Amino acid sequence: MTHTCFPxxxxxxxxxxxxxxxGAWNEDGKGESIWDRFSHTPGAVANGDTGDVACDHYHxxxxxxxxxxxxxxxxxxxxxxxxxxxxxxxxxxxxxxxDFYDRLVDALLEAGITPFVTLYHWDLPQALQDAGGWPARAxxxxxxxxxxxxxxxxxxxxxxxxxLNEPFVSAVVGYLDGRxxxxxxxxxxxxxxxxxxxLGHGWAVPxxxxxxxxxxVGIVLNLGGQHPASPSPADRAAAWRQDGVIHRWxxxxxxxRGYPADVVQWRGRPMDFVMGGDLEHIAxxxxxxxxxxxxxxxxxxxxxxxxxxxxxxxxPNPEHTEMGWEVYPEGLYEILGRLHFCYPxxxxxxxxxxxxxxxxxxxxxxxxxxxxxxxLEQHLVQAGRAIAVGVPLRGYFAWSLLDNFEWAxxxxxxxGLVYVDYRTQQRILKRSAHWYGRxxxxxxxxx
Length: 447
Ligand code: IFM
Known about the structure:
- α8 packs antiparallel against α9.
- It is built from 15 helices and 14 strands.
- The protein has one domain (3-446): TIM Barrel.
- By secondary structure, the protein is α/β, with parallel strands linked by helices.
- The termini are close together.
- The structure holds 5-hydroxymethyl-3,4-dihydroxypiperidine.
- 5-hydroxymethyl-3,4-dihydroxypiperidine (IFM) is lined by residues 17, 20, 166, 292, 352, 399, 406.
- The site of 5-hydroxymethyl-3,4-dihydroxypiperidine (IFM) has 7 residues, from loops.
């Protein structure tokens, strides 16, 4: 048995997002978000679930901060609900919304927990969607006003800011696949949305820094290797294209390299939403990149018949999580290494990593989620390997602190370290929560 130790200044945290935990969807002056509208649309979310109540964190935040303290969390990544601050997306400010986050930040600091604030984790004000949503350039302008408001209000106490969570998912799953809010299926809307998300990010970075000069500002992307299913040229080309669509479309412009020419050409769509100067703004220097890692992709070319392609040589690990995602811990090492050696981001955080399993409360009230412990442990070992080869990985955030609303899957997928009984709102620390507390205390894992 060996021990993976982490640097003494390594930050251990857990993450959540506003719509997934807060509830109180229409309380204290909050405006409607695209997720309120989407989840209230029959058939959009499994079992008709909505985030109306979720984990009721809006009312139970105090109890939840106490849980974090029990775990020994050093940092907590949460997101602000934009329509709680600006009910119509821009213009009139809802003071009660600001007060909520004000109290939360104070309580975290009081508990010795560093807040990492995400500005946008998918709950766009519905009023902005009605005016065109992310495909409209004005939404990027509104985002900067919102970033300015939030960082002016909290910047005296919050030093770590994340502009966007997973813009790929906002753009592609929301505007092309239609599985997330606002539920559209239009390639041109998707491309424009992705650009305006990145543009809003790039414009917001200097504004946040102006409001909090020592701020560390970053963005969070969903990343994971796209492996060809065989070494055939067709599979390799398909995997590289998939990498371009999911990764390079976001990484390259953020790193000042513009949009990847191979993907632009393959899409063959007009990019007339890109204005002069946009790419320079998008490439605003970052303090860190946040990596959300869950699994990898194994890509098989669709362009030639299966029987004419080379035999597959890469097969998934048979172990899958409840999401149907392959458990592939080495992928975390691979992506961290690639980011460090191929891109200029000065520091990295794992801003999400975790697994959904069908957890149940046992006869004596315990939740024995041994598979989650194993998942997290294996990924931490890979994070440790990455640090050992020089990757500037500064911290790790488990997804998620609490079981919560898993978007189109509703409450059917449990990712939490803490079990939530949605009927009573009782919280139960799972075995993984106790285990994670010991990892934090030891600053390392046994493997
Ligand atoms: O729950 C989501 C989170 O909101 C964004 N990253 C992936 C998680 C699991 O699907």
